[in-house]
Amino acid sequence: MAVPLLTSSRALAQTPPGLDLQLYAGLSITGAVATVYSVEYVTDLAQTNSWRCLEFLQPPASPYLWADKSAPATVQRFYRAAVFAAPTNLVFIPPGTFRMGSPTNELDRNVLNDDVQIAEGLQTAVTISHGFWMGKYEVTQGEYLAMMGKNPSQFQGDTNLPVESVSWFDATNYCGKLTLREQTAGRIPTGSRFRLPTEAEWEYASRAWTSTRFSYGEDLGYDNLDQYAWYGVNSGSSTHPVGQKLPNSWGLYDMSGNVWEWCQDHPSPELGGIALDPQGPTTGAERVLRGGSAFGPGAGQRAAQRFHSAPDVSSGITGFRVVLAPGQP
């Protein structure tokens, strides 16, 4: 459990100078409001190399009182907040609440309804309770080749093209190797790891606090989609280098089009109601893909569009992007 400290304490060992911490049943953080911190704990202050990341936090105010809701009742914990400079090409996604899925009157809702699409169902009020880092771009062929020693992609000729022809297993193996490399290099805190986004995290990040068909608006005639996505109308039946179209307001590129992106979840219907950090069913034969592709119609690029496939299947339309977060989803 968190140990009360009756007097305020300066920053603990290995915490950046100038950051004032106080320990109560949690942690009072005094620092820059726009800065992202890695909130970490140890059970023994003598073990200076044993700090583990509990949360990535961007305080909305200073000072900010943070509480450890995961602390076991029988274990003593000590905390610190260390400024975290994210690895290249990651964007911090703050916690929040959004409407997942599409309203029943949304134009072209379920227009692609066939045996491989997941029906969009009822909207769900979803809360994402913890911030996370997400790849600014889809994983590129150059990144995949450097990590895995091979490039399975069907469309080649530029290492900045998104990697595709990867299965869900390929994508999760990449995340595991990336985690090991970055932890060994000391670029991410112990207790954090790279993984695929949950479907809810993906849609939340794609919408960037919007509720329209696309993050940039309703675009009922698909007049502006060309500025944000490579899809069937403008792609020339090929993928394109990442980051060439406009990003959403959170700085994420190609959230519509280019390649479908694997998510962590087994598919499930949107059942309405409310949900906290949903992770999909615990079992299932398939995994979710989101975001549309360079070969689909405009309707297939909408924020609510859903797709799924067997995890061992790969094709020229399936790729992925990574998330960095504490623990597992």
Return the domain count: 2
The low-confidence parts are 1-24
Shape: globular
Terminal Cα span? 23 Å
For the report, how would you describe the main beta sheet?
4 strands, antiparallel
Tell me roughly what share of residues is in helical segments. Answer: 10-25%
Using only C-alpha atoms, the radius of gyration works out to 21 Å
How do the helices and strands follow one another from N- to C-terminus? Answer: EEEEEEEEEEHHEHEEEEEE
Total E-strand runs: 17
Structural class of the secondary elements? alpha+beta
Q: Give the name of the CATH superfamily of the largest domain.
A: paralog of FGE (formylglycine-generating enzyme)
Here the CATH topology of the largest domain equals paralog of FGE (formylglycine-generating enzyme)
- The pLDDT mean sits at 89
Proportion in β-strands: 15-25%
**What is the CATH architecture descriptor of the largest domain?**
Alpha-Beta Complex
**Would you state the CATH class of the largest domain?**
Alpha Beta
**What's the total helix number?**
3
Task: Describe this entry's structure for a reader.
The protein is α+β, with helices and mostly antiparallel strands and 329 residues long. The protein folds into 2 domains: 20-83, no CATH class; 90-326, paralog of FGE (formylglycine-generating enzyme). The chain is 10% helix and 22% strand. It is built from 3 helices and 17 strands. The strands form 5 sheets. It has a 4-stranded antiparallel beta sheet with strand order 7-10-17-11. It has a 4-stranded mixed beta sheet with strand order 15-14-12-16, covered by helices on one side.
